[in-house]
Amino acid sequence: PITCIQNPAAGKEKELGIGTLQKAENPKKVMIAGGGVAGMKVAEIAARRGHEVVLYEKDAVLGGQIHLVKHIPFRNEFSEVARYIEYEIKQMDNIRIQTSRVCDLQTIEEENPDIFIVATGAVELIPDMVKTPKAVTSWDILKNKVEIGKNILVYDPLSFNEGVGIVEHLFETYEDIKVHYITPQNDIAMNAKNENKDILLRRLLPLDLRITPHMALIEADADKLIFRKTYTDKEMSIWDSAFDNFIYTGHMKSTDDLFWKLEDEKNMEVYRLGYAKAPSSVEIIIREADLLARSI
Length: 296
Description:
Layout: H1 13-16, E1 29-33, H2 37-48, E2 52-57, H3 66-69, H4 78-90, E3 95-99, H5 105-111, E4 115-118, E5 122-124, E6 135-137, H6 138-142, E7 151-155, H7 161-173, E8 178-182, H8 194-204, E9 209-212, E10 215-220, E11 224-229, E12 235-239, E13 245-248, E14 252-254, H9 257-262, E15 269-272, H10 282-295
Parallel strand pairs: 1-2, 1-4, 2-3, 4-15, 6-13, 7-8, 7-13, 8-9
Antiparallel strand pairs: 5-14, 10-11, 11-12
Helix pairs in contact: 2-4, 2-10
C-alpha cells in the first residue's frame, strides 16, 4: 500500500484526506506534555480543529528523539519531519509553545486544561541483569557520552533499525574498529522493507562486522556474557577481555508517570501518545497523533 512518513492521509485519502478534518463542535483547551514528533503532530491537528493548544517541552528545542536519529547514517531526512511540523505549529495563533519548561502536576493545575496528552517519549535503559561496567545504551553512543574502543559488542534483542543504525554510526564515526552484532532474532533490521534491507546489507557486509543471529543474552556478569542459542539451547560465552564496549540497544521504558498520576482525574480527559504509550515507527506515531486529534 502507498504510505508517507509525513502524511498519514497517503493511501487513506477517503478517511484522512482533504476535506475530512472537521472543526470541533465544542472547542476545548488541550495541553500536551512533550514536544517531539508525537506532541507536535497532535498539537497541529487539534489546533486545526479549533482547539486552544498549549505545548510544553522540557528541552530548549522541539523535536525529541529525532535529534538523536538524525546522527545515524542515511537517517538525516528524519529531521525534516520534525522541522516541517514545527514550522506548521509555529504559524498557528491558537498554539502556545513553552520550551525549556518541565510539565508537572502544578503546571497542569495552573493551565487547567480540558484534555491532557502525555507525549513525553521514553528513555533507553540497560536491564538490571546486565552487570558489566562496559555496558552502554545506543543513546549514550549517539550523545557522545562514551569513549569507544576498537572491539565493540552490540546486542540487539529486537533487531529493529535502531540496532543496525548504531552499527553504521560506529563505522562512519570511528576508524579501525571491529563490531560483533548479536541478536536472538532470525535476521537484522527485522522491521526494514526488503528493498531497503538489500541496500543496508551492501553497506554493512564489506565492513569488519560479524553478525550472529539466534543468540539470546541470558547472563551478563562483570567478567563475561553468556548467550543461549534460541533453537538448540547451546550456550556461548564472551569474556570481558574480548570487547571494549557492550552496547545494549532497544530496551525502552516509557516516561508516562504523568499519565498514571492523572488517569483517574475526573475533570479532564487524559491520553498517552507516541513512545510514552509504546515504541513505534515515526510513520505510525504521526498517524496515531492525527487520529487522536480528530477524536477529541
